[in-house]
């Protein structure tokens, strides 16, 4: 599942959930285009995050550990 959240003055607020990344992305893209607000998608496992604004969008795969690194207790430096 992918949550669609809107950035409000109180923080991130849930707006919808979709079974696929594509459906969630296009829902958030349409809303951002219509109202100019900032939205994000977050996968249930917190592995995929997308940020959508009226100026564009960007998605990241956010796996913090590879299985080998986890076995060795090493983190992956994402910069």
Helix and strand layout, with pairings?
Elements: E1 2-8, E2 11-18, H1 21-35, E3 39-43, E4 48-53, E5 56-61, H2 67-72
Antiparallel strand pairs: 1-2, 1-3, 3-4, 4-5
Strand content: 35-45%
* Tally of DSSP helical segments: 2
Q: What is the terminal separation in angstroms?
A: 27 Å
Radius of gyration: 14 Å
Largest sheet: 5 strands, antiparallel
**Unreliable stretches covering 5 or more consecutive residues:** 65-71, 73-79
What string, H for helix and E for strand, traces the elements in order?
A: EEHEEEH
Q: What is the averaged pLDDT score?
A: 83
Coarse morphology: globular
Portion of residues within helices:
25-40%
Could you give the count of β-strands?
Answer: 5
Explain this structure:
27% of the residues lie in helices and 41% in strands. By secondary structure, the chain is of the alpha+beta class. The chain has a 5-stranded antiparallel sheet, covered by helices on one side. It starts with a strand and ends in a 7-residue tail after the last helix.
Could you give a short description of this structure?
The protein has 79 residues and is an alpha+beta fold. The chain has 2 helices and 5 strands. The chain has a 5-stranded antiparallel β-sheet with strand order 2-1-3-4-5, with helices on one face.
Overview features:
79 residues, five-stranded antiparallel sheet, alpha+beta, globular
